[in-house]
Design brief:
Blueprint: E1 17-23, H1 28-43, E2 46-52, H2 55-59, H3 67-90, H4 95-108, H5 116-125, H6 142-153, E3 164-168, E4 174-178, H7 188-202
Parallel strand pairs: 1-2
Antiparallel strand pairs: 1-3, 3-4
Helix pairs in contact: 1-7, 3-4, 4-5
Length: 221
């Protein structure tokens, strides 16, 4: 597949409602939500616009984290740095295909996010130059990564994680929320019902949270 030309980031105009979605490719729960969001695109008049955020950035000044999670965050820089490099070089519209290629390998296939070969294969599938994998160990676009992360997290606050979703509200300002956290990803009309309900509670003045304990991990299908 030919490589896209380098150019400035620009979104195409659309009559569908834009849904801004911030993700960290290493996060399994964001992956589940993203697959649900793709289902929502099929049954509701919406268009997802992908953005990166970073669990490593979110947690870098927190001292109480378990050691195992600290190790995860250290290696989580790689995939998200590759994503921000791809966006900066080729435009935000390449992120959806790259995220799908990465996430399928990292989560569904259980290959994890540490191996360079996983990133290279994902870049190939997304039609992007494989030398973008070099940015996994580079801070070249860390300022842009932090800016993208801050744009998303500032809409919901520091005490949440990934994903962050934002949609236009009735007054023109964005309504943003963390999640929903769900497994497995609903499909068809079930995806539509969850979307409608999420928008309903998110748009209710003064509403902040519904939550219960997770009793199972992500189910990748």
């Amino acid at each position: 597949m030919p490589c896209p030309e380098e150019r400035d980031v620009s979104d195409s105009t659309t009559t569908r409602t834009p849904v801004d979605f911030w993700f960290d490719p290493a996060c399994p729960w964001a992956w589940m939500t993203s697959r649900w969001m793709l289902e929502v695109e099929k049954v509701r008049d919406v268009e997802v616009r992908w953005h990166v955020m970073s669990l490593a950035v979110l947690n870098e000044n927190r001292d109480e984290l378990p050691e195992q999670y600290r190790e995860f965050l250290t290696t989580a820089w790689g995939p998200v740095r590759v994503c921000i490099a791809a966006e900066q070089k080729y435009g935000s519209e390449v992120l959806g295909a790259l995220y799908t290629a990465l996430g399928t390998r990292i989560h569904n296939q259980g290959l994890g996010h540490k191996d360079r070969d996983v990133i290279v294969a994902a870049l190939e599938e997304a039609g992007l130059p494989t030398d973008l994998a070099d940015f996994a160990d580079s801070d070249t676009y860390d300022a842009e990564l932090r800016a993208s992360h801050q744009e998303g997290i500032s809409k919901v606050g520091q005490d949440v994680g990934t994903p962050v979703i934002a949609v236009p509200g009735a007054d023109g300002e964005q309504i943003a929320f963390f999640g929903p956290v769900v497994t497995p990803a609903p499909k068809g009309e079930a995806a539509a019902r969850l979307w409608d309900g999420t928008l309903l509670v998110a748009s209710t003045p003064g509403f902040y949270e519904i939550k219960r304990t997770r009793e199972q991990g992500p189910i990748f299908d």
